[in-house]
C-alpha cells in the first residue's frame, strides 16, 4: 500500500522509562472492526496496522514520557546537525533513580512503513555524543543493514560496519561530515542522500505531536480558515460535537503589549506599546435574533481545545500523518472523544493511512464496539518507580468483556492506588 505509517516505537532509559518499552501499531489476527480500524499493508509478514493506540495510566505513571521520548527522538533527527553541545546534553534525561542506569545511554528505535518499504532506525546517546546508530531497510522479506556505527571508548572513535551495497552515494564523505553530537541519518539526508530523505521527511513532516499550550494552540487551525472548504469542515465537526458556532473569524485589534528586558549588571527595563494583535471571534445566533460575535473569553476551555485539535486532526487525515496528543480528554466530553475516534476510523474519510496515538483518562473509550482490543495500552510504575507499558491483550480479555468496568476495578492495572483515610 502507498502510505506512511508507524509500525512500532521503542525506548529505553528515558526519564521514568528505565527498561525497554514498546508501543506497537501491528494489528492482531482479531477480525473485530478489521475493515475500518486497521490498514492493509500488502506485506505478508506485516499484513495490517492499527489506525489508533490509546494509552491509559494513573497520573505520573509515565504516559507523557512516552510521547516526550518520541518528541525527543524526532527533535534529534530534525536538528542534531545544528545543535550545540550544551543543547545536545539537555536531550539526555536518563532514569535517575537507579545508579546503574543514570550514566547509561538512552536508546530509541522506530519502525515505519513508507510506501511499502519498512525502515527500522535506531540510535543511542548520552550527554556527550551519539553512542550508536543503525538503519535496516526491508524492501522484500530480508532486511538490508544500510549503515551501523558504535562508539568505542578504548580507541576514542566510532567503529563503522561496512555500508550496504544497496545504500548508494558518497557515503565516506557523509561519514566524515558527521559530528559526534549529530546523527549520520540527518547529516546524509541534508547532504542530499535520496535514499534516506523519505524516512527523514516522514519524521519531520508526517509526525505531528500536539499538546495544549493555551491560546497559541489554536493557530494551526485558525491559519487555515481562509480556505472555505476547510472552514466548513471545522464548523461541521463543531456542530457534530453539539457546539453551536455559526462562524469563526480572526480580527486584528489594537492591544497593549508589555516587553520585559533583563541584561546582566543592569536594572530590569519595561516597555509598553500599543500594537495590532490577533483576536479570535466566534459567531453565535439564535433563531429570530441578531447574530452575536464572542471572543475567547466567552468560549469554554473544551470548545477552544476541540478547535485547536480539529486542525491537526483534519491535516493528519488529509496528509496521512501520525497525530500524537497527550491527554486528549482534558476538558472534552466523552461523546466528543468518541466522535474524534469515529472520524479517525471512518475509511471513507481517512483514506491515506492516518494514525492517532493518544493518552487519556476517559474510560468510556474502553468499549469493544468503538475500538479493537489490541488498540488499548496501559502504563504503570513498579516498586522501583520505573514505568511499564503493556497491552490489554496481555490479559486475553474475552469477547464481550466489560473493559471499562474491568479497568476501573484494577483488573488490568494502570490505575492509581488510592489510600482512603477515615475522616472523623
Q: Can you describe this structure?
A:
By secondary structure, the chain is of the alpha+beta class. The chain has 2 domains: 311 residues, Rossmann fold (3-Layer(aba) Sandwich); 82 residues, no CATH class. 24% of the residues lie in helices and 29% in strands. The strands form 4 sheets. A 7-stranded antiparallel β-sheet has the order 2-1-6-7-8-9-10, with helices on one face. A hairpin with a 7-residue loop joins strand 12 and strand 13. The longest helix has 19 residues. The chain starts with a strand and ends in a 16-residue tail after the last helix. 36% of the residues are buried. The model has no long low-confidence stretch (mean pLDDT 91).
The unreliable regions are none
Shape: globular
- The total count of strands amounts to 18
CATH architecture of the largest domain: 3-Layer(aba) Sandwich
Q: Average pLDDT across residues?
A: 91
Distance linking N and C termini: 65 Å
Major sheet: arrangement of strands: 2-1-6-7-8-9-10
Radius of gyration: 24 Å
Structural class: alpha+beta
Q: How would you characterize the largest beta sheet?
A: 7 strands, antiparallel
Question: Given the structure, what is the number of helices?
Answer: 11
Series of H and E elements: EEHEEEHHEEEEEHHHEHHEEEHEHEEEH
The CATH first-level class of the largest domain comes to: Alpha Beta
- Structural domain count: 2
Strand residue percentage: 25-35%
Give the structure's gist in a few sentences.
The protein is 24% helix and 29% strand. The chain is α+β, with helices and mostly antiparallel strands.
Amino acid at each position: 500500500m502507498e502510505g506512511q505509517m508507524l509500525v512500532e516505537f521503542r525506548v529505553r532509559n528515558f526519564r521514568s522509562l528505565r527498561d525497554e518499552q514498546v508501543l506497537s501499531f501491528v494489528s492482531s489476527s482479531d477480525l473485530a472492526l478489521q475493515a475500518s480500524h486497521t490498514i492493509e499493508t500488502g506485506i505478508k509478514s506485516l499484513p495490517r496496522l492499527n489506525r489508533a493506540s490509546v494509552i491509559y495510566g494513573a497520573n505520573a505513571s509515565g504516559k507523557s514520557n512516552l510521547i516526550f521520548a518520541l518528541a525527543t527522538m524526532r527533535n534529534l533527527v530534525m536538528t542534531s546537525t545544528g545543535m550545540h553541545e550544551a543543547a545536545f546534553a539537555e536531550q539526555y534525561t536518563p532514569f535517575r533513580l537507579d545508579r546503574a542506569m543514570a550514566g547509561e545511554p538512552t536508546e530509541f528505535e522506530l519502525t515505519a512503513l513508507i510506501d511499502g518499504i519498512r525502515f527500522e532506525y535506531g540510535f543511542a546517546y548520552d550527554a556527550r555524543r551519539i553512542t550508536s546508530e543503525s538503519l535496516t531497510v526491508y524492501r522484500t522479506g530480508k532486511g538490508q543493514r544500510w549503515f551501523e556505527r558504535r562508539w568505542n571508548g578504548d580507541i576514542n572513535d566510532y567503529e563503522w560496519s561496512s555500508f550496504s551495497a544497496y545504500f548508494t552515494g558518497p557515503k565516506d564523505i557523509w561519514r566524515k561530515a558527521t559530528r559526534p553530537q549529530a546523527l549520520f541519518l540527518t547529516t546524509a539526508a541534508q547532504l542530499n542522500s535520496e535514499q534516506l530523505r523519505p524516512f527523514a521527511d516522514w519524521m519531520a513532516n508526517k509526525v505531528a505531536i500536539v499538546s495544549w499550550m493555551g491560546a497559541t494552540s489554536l493557530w494551526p487551525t485558525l491559519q487555515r480558515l481562509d480556505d472555505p472548504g476547510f472552514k466548513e469542515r471545522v464548523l461541521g465537526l463543531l456542530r457534530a460535537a453539539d457546539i453551536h458556532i455559526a462562524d469563526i473569524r480572526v480580527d486584528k485589534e489594537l492591544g497593549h503589549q508589555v516587553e520585559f528586558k533583563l541584561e546582566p549588571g543592569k536594572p530590569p527595563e519595561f516597555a509598553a506599546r500599543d500594537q495590532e494583535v490577533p483576536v479570535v471571534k466566534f459567531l453565535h445566533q439564535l433563531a429570530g435574533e441578531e447574530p452575536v460575535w464572542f471572543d475567547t473569553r466567552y468560549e469554554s476551555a473544551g470548545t477552544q481545545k476541540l478547535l485547536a485539535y480539529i486542525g491537526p486532526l483534519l491535516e493528519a487525515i488529509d496528509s496521512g500523518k501520525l497525530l500524537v496528543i497527550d491527554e486528549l480528554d482534558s476538558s472534552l466530553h466523552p461523546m466528543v472523544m468518541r466522535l474524534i475516534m469515529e472520524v479517525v476510523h471512518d475509511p471513507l474519510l481517512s483514506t491515506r493511512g492516518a494514525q492517532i496515538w493518544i493518552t487519556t483518562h476517559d474510560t468510556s473509550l474502553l468499549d469493544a464496539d468503538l475500538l479493537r482490543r489490541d488498540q488499548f495500552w496501559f502504563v504503570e510504575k513498579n516498586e522501583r518507580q520505573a514505568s511499564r507499558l503493556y497491552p490489554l491483550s496481555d490479559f486475553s480479555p474475552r469477547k464481550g468483556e466489560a473493559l471499562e468496568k474491568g479497568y476501573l476495578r484494577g483488573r488490568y492495572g494502570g490505575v492509581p492506588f488510592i489510600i482512603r483515610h477515615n475522616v472523623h
